[in-house]
Amino acid sequence: MIELSNQIRDLRLPYRPDQLPCLQAILSGASKRALVICLGGKGGVGKTMAASQVADVYASAGHVLAIDADPANQHFYKGLMRELPSGSREYTPRLATVHAITHRLRAEDHAGRIDPTACQDLMELIQDASDPYIIVDCPAGDTETTQRCSEIIIESCRESDIRLVVAVTVGAVDPTPIDVLRDLEFLLSQADRSVLVKNTAQAVNFTYIERSDIYAKLNGLPNFREIQIAKIGERIIEGLRLGNIPWHTLATETPMRIRVEAARLRQEYHQLWLEALK
Question: Is the pTM of this model over 0.85?
Answer without folding.
Answer: yes
